[in-house]
């Protein structure tokens, strides 16, 4: 958390609030957040004084286009939150890592209790410079949009396929699963293969598809791959429609402090020991080095 649907909710709020505004100042409490730059001052020089053109998303990255060739990339990591100040006197929350002020409107703060979130200013490569894309994106993505984003922001070129932006059919998901040869749950959340999914939407999609996440990915039949693809699209679009999920322990909220609504529709995630919604078997929780999965032993083969 946040995963693709939650970052998309944040994107929509920021796009509405920030387009056309100028970044006045950026205050950085923890230099690690902008660790890709030599110094925090270098980072600030690239973004301060620039106007915001638009806000896009790829995977869990927020992409804020500035009025030159720079894109401000924000990756909230598993625990980062972007929150708008609720007025001039609103005290900074604990664990505030970065504060943006604008020529008008409230401050925007990045809050993260374990500083795993990061941001950087990416420069668009010169015309003619070749950017090597993630091999799955390069060969399998049906849409050009995500490829264009990766070419403009080379730091994101290694990122695997975004299920919403890159668009790929079940047969192409099947190729990824055949090549990966890892537990299906691990493949879903591994950003070398797919971008934007974490344990919540991996668990939910696998339940909807009736597949156990610890199975090795190359054992999926065509029918199972087709079911998994359909489940992914269904689960993500429902989560997007309902404003994302707010689940413990991070309890994600949007920049105005509002939680999502998808948590009430979760079938397995966070429901260890509770009866399965389909067959009443208690839900199992399994945690490995790579993933945390919730599933029904009976409904998922
Ligand atoms: Zn069940």
Description:
It is a single chain. This protein is α+β, with helices and mostly antiparallel strands and about 300 residues long. It folds into 2 domains: about 5-125, Alpha-Beta Barrel (N-terminal domain of MutM-like DNA repair proteins); about 200-295, Helicase, Ruva Protein, domain 3, CATH 1.10.8. About 30% of the residues lie in helices and about 20% in strands. The strands form 3 sheets. The protein has a 4-stranded antiparallel sheet with strand order 1-6-7-5. A 4-stranded antiparallel sheet has the order 2-3-4-8, with helices on both faces. It has a two-stranded antiparallel ribbon with strand order 9-10. Strand 6 and strand 7 form a beta hairpin. It is globular and about 55 Å long. Zinc ion binds near residues 281, 298 and 299.
Task: Summarize this structure briefly.
The chain is α+β, with helices and mostly antiparallel strands and 301 residues long.
Provide the spatial order of strands within the biggest beta sheet. Answer: 1-6-7-5
Proper CATH architecture of the largest domain: Alpha-Beta Barrel
Tell me, what's the shape?
globular
Strand content: 15-25%
Helix content: 25-40%
The helix count comes to 8
Low-pLDDT windows of residues: none
Would you state the CATH class of the largest domain? Alpha Beta
Q: Structurally, how many domains make up the residues?
A: 2
Largest sheet: 4 strands, antiparallel
């Amino acid at each position: 958390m946040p995963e693709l649907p939650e970052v998309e909710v944040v994107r929509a709020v920021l796009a509405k609030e920030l387009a056309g505004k100028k970044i006045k100042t950026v205050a950085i409490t923890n230099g690690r957040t902008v660790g890709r730059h030599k110094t925090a001052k270098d980072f600030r020089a690239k973004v301060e004084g620039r106007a915001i053109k638009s806000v896009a998303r790829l995977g869990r990255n927020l992409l804020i286009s500035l009025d030159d060739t720079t894109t401000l990339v924000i990756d909230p990591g598993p625990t980062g939150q972007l929150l708008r100040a609720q007025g001039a006197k609103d005290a900074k929350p604990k664990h505030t890592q970065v504060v943006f002020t604008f020529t008008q409107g409230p401050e925007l703060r990045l809050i993260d209790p374990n500083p795993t979130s990061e941001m950087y200013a990416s420069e668009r490569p010169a015309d003619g410079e070749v950017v090597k894309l993630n091999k799955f994106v390069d060969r399998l993505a049906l849409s050009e949009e995500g490829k264009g984003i990766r070419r403009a922001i080379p730091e994101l070129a290694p990122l695997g396929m975004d299920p919403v932006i890159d668009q790929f059919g079940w047969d192409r998901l099947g190729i990824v699963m055949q090549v990966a040869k890892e537990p299906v749950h691990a493949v879903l959340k591994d950003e070398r293969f797919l971008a934007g999914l974490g344990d919540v939407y991996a668990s939910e999609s696998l339940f909807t598809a009736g597949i156990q996440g610890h199975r090795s990915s190359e054992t999926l039949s065509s029918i199972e791959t087709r079911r998994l693809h359909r489940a992914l699209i269904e689960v993500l679009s429902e989560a997007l429609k309902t404003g994302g999920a707010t689940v413990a322990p991070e309890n994600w909220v949007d920049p105005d402090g509002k939680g999502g609504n998808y948590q009430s529709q979760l079938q397995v995630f966070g429901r260890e020991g509770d009866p399965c919604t389909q067959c009443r078997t208690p839900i199992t929780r399994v945690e490995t080095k790579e993933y945390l999965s919730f599933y029904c032993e009976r409904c998922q083969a």
